[in-house]
Amino acid sequence: MTEKRHIDPERAATRRRQVLDAAATCFRRSGFHGASMSEISKAAGMSAGHIYNYFASKDAIIAAFVEDNVARVMELIGNIESQADPLQAIVDDVETSVRNNIDPEHWALPLEIFAESSRNPVIAALSQDADRRTRARFRALLKAGREKYGLAVDDNTLDGRMETVISLFQGLQLRALHNPGLPIPGMIDSFRIALKALLFN
Amino acid sequence: MTEKRHIDPERAATRRRQVLDAAATCFRRSGFHGASMSEISKAAGMSAGHIYNYFASKDAIIAAFVEDNVARVMELIGNIESQADPLQAIVDDVETSVRNNIDPEHWALPLEIFAESSRNPVIAALSQDADRRTRARFRALLKAGREKYGLAVDDNTLDGRMETVISLFQGLQLRALHNPGLPIPGMIDSFRIALKALLFN
Amino acid sequence: MTEKRHIDPERAATRRRQVLDAAATCFRRSGFHGASMSEISKAAGMSAGHIYNYFASKDAIIAAFVEDNVARVMELIGNIESQADPLQAIVDDVETSVRNNIDPEHWALPLEIFAESSRNPVIAALSQDADRRTRARFRALLKAGREKYGLAVDDNTLDGRMETVISLFQGLQLRALHNPGLPIPGMIDSFRIALKALLFN
Amino acid sequence: MTEKRHIDPERAATRRRQVLDAAATCFRRSGFHGASMSEISKAAGMSAGHIYNYFASKDAIIAAFVEDNVARVMELIGNIESQADPLQAIVDDVETSVRNNIDPEHWALPLEIFAESSRNPVIAALSQDADRRTRARFRALLKAGREKYGLAVDDNTLDGRMETVISLFQGLQLRALHNPGLPIPGMIDSFRIALKALLFN
DNA sequence: CATGAATGAGGATTCATTCAT
DNA sequence: GATGAATGAATCCTCATTCAT
Prior knowledge:
Four copies of one chain form a homotetramer.
Chain A: H1 9-34, H2 37-44, H3 48-51, H4 58-81, H5 86-92, H6 94-102, H7 104-117, H8 121-148, H9 155-178, H10 184-199
The structure holds a DNA duplex.
């Protein structure tokens, strides 16, 4: 059980949100492990003990948090979907997306999540499930886009292209972590080349 | 100081290896943070205190893994360097390299290192330095390869291509973590396409 | 930070006192180094972890004793200051002050502080600062007292007399430790002689 | 039992001395508690394990060390005894003796010993016994000196004067610890005044 | 609903001591 | 005699969690 019954469900929802927002700040600053419940409770403006009325454990907060993060990625995909030519949009937006993924603000939390996945089976399952859902959506987008251009849309091609594009962007976050002096303009050019090749072949 | 002097260097090396092997198992199972020294000591078949005769700290153990990783990557680069046409070799070997990077045996520890880097400054510095060294070697290979084909070798192009290729492979490890059912053949094709585009343009 | 905020300051003060009293007992029995936090927590009737809600560290506990000591000495000086003829008062009170300084209840903790100061730089700094403050107060008293008698009050004389008088009393604590059978009446006589000579010359 | 039987007693004595000399260095540098057996063994040029063939425990080293220190004090008294007019010699040598006692080289070890006394009953007993012996010798010197001048030599007077003089010098060590900027010339004057008053009254 | 005082298990690390060689 | 590898108990401190109020 992840949450107690509450008299006023609306108030409870607000409280949960308060905690999750506070957790986001703390997790970004200190990591899942580094952020203590006391730190989170202070940021959430409520007592540490009270948080346990809304979340069964710290892990439950992390879990809710991971779930929350799916929404953010979905939104990104939504933005691309709404464009006239989604495939071309991906290529055209390459500068923005590269710059975004290099920003620590962007990768700190995803990295935190995958790190947690490696030692917390609950988070791992959650995280894989979240990935599955975003993949499904991205796959649909890719399929529609390629059909428009009369390109192959068999499973193998579609899934391979998709995973490779995602590799590129998730790998980019790792690069930002390892090489603080990333050659941004050069990478934008290269990403454009790789994306064109992957999406339009 | 990273290690005490030992009278019998061979025995010491064996002991170090014992600890490292045990640690690898534990880190893979529980993560660097999650694995306690006592857990490691049990797996290594020696007392926790004694480990400190071979490693100055828990950090020093993961540091050893960082170095191990450098050696592994350097060897890979060395293999490519020794080929007649390195650029083409990268493309030709894509099946092997994709399969290797997908193997959990391969990425579990590197990912653990990434994760630790994101919050442990000592490991971060070590890890960035390791990255710098492998980058330098890969860059030289890439430069020589491109010169042979009369392709651009200005800094921007060279560094951008290089970082993008690395993104691809490091991202692949993340994909393997998030999606256990990766479409391997499809990815091999897609990786080949992306690599060709990146290396020969 | 030396202490967390507490909602009920009175209760907190009681708890702090509990810890301090328990610590005093343990420190007297086993020394600062020898007394473990767990030993203190048992004596204080609370968990070891909880002590850290009142004191930031074990050092912070001994720091509290340093301050306590300052207060005690300041009070003594205050008592002398309020007398009509402070210099004469010191000589007249010699019996009481010798007896007090010989009492283990009095010197056990100060001696523990000295000992800790000799190898713990934090405590050393604290302790030196405490000494500076009490010295300043005693010096003023001494100056005023000597001026009344038309005696020399140049820095050299004043500081020399002061430090020598303090040596006498602090040394007395060491003597009590080393020689449990101190010849109290004889020492009172001798202290009177030495103090007269030091204060009125 | 403090020591094993040894085939060659002379060699054993040398070894013991090696350890004690090394210990002196280490204790001064790091304190009794701070100096590890490994540190001492390195300084003594023999293995940690081997030390246990000469001393039953670390405490036994400390004990032997305390015993050793008595000799040093005895020597000081011996120097005074050999003078024509010992009482006057004490007063005349005041500059040297004050300067010596202020030197950290002098008080570091005694302070270490008394600190240890407060938590180690064996050392406490040893230390008190050492004090008793040096006191006896100093008392004899004082008695002879005072008889020469026809001064009172009843127990009360004699012991009181003696303990007070010792207080003065042992207190001086504490002052040096607490006040690094001790007014040395002023203290020499004051010590002379106090000593004259104590010895010749 | 809300607090924060209190717990206690668990973490890394150190070090005196033992013992096989 | 001599070594140093090996042990394991003990240390301070942190923090998720519980619960009386």
